[in-house]
Fold this protein.
Amino acid sequence: MKIFSYLSLIKKKLRPLKMSYSFGTIDILVNYFFKNKKYGVFVDVGCQNPISNNNTYLLYKKKKWSGVNIDLDQKNIDLFNLVRQRDINIKAAVSSGNLKKKIYFYHDKSAINTIEKKISLRQKAKVKKIIDINTVTLNQLLIKNKIKKIDFLTIDVEG
């Protein structure tokens, strides 16, 4: 099963005519905004997938940017470690403090896994399991990983 995930990612990575990787072509706008900047630094909180529906992959691929990708699902981080080796890829749940929270977990690599109970109650899908976790702040992660300058920050989390 792992090999199929890897091959699927490779196929997407090698698709030469693909212009946008994000939802709604946000990455094209971001790429245009930074058209004269190579080797920038991004932080992607709630990164989910290293290629598909990702706001930073175009910067990574075309402009040789690197950065920090943060997601609460280890399977997503494993995919980032395969495909985005210049980046720092972190499994963590980010919130406003060091809190005890629950992950409402639907399935591996799901875009709707969340730590917000209200959001989970609105989903049509059923929660597969609830996992207790400790959250961290974004500042803590940036300090720990010695990130002092950020050119682009993208956050896709609930709450």
